Amino acid sequence: MPLEPRESDLPRVRGALRFYTVASIITGVMLLLLCLEMIVKYGLGYELELAGPYGFLAFVPRETAVAVNLSTGILIAHGWFYVVYLFSDFRLWSLMRWPFWKFLLIAAGGIVPLLSFFLEARIGREVTSYLERRSAASTPSVEATTA
Predict the structure, then answer these.
(1) What is the pLDDT of residue 141?
(2) What angle do CA 96, 105, 24 make, to 5 degrees?
(3) pTM, two decimal places
(4) Beta strands, E only, 1-147
(5) Could you tell me if 34 and 74 are in contact, meaning their C-beta atoms sit under 8 angstroms apart?
């Protein structure tokens, strides 16, 4: 028999779902930027430079950036957002009391391009429908209270 969230955790699940939704969208966008940056860097041989001698935002040959290297910045930002995403994944997973494979599946959303968007929609629907079913089951009917 699968475990279900505790009654006392249901309000926290709603907050965890909101946090997970925001974290998954940010991580997904950052992952797409990272993929694009890798294509430009290793496929075309350029890096993105901010406020350098070629202008405010310019592509420069690899490893010649003298100002702020946005290619490295995108890499670092995605790494830190992925840590936040993993935390949001863990929080939602532990409150919902899901099996461990589901934690691993959601965690893969931050490393497989576009997967976080699909998982965010699927997990969001699943948790929302669960919460609605649970609140409908716990709300006493009008007939039961008047009898």
Answers:
(1) 54
(2) 75
(3) 0.83
(4) 46-52, 55-61, 68-69
(5) yes
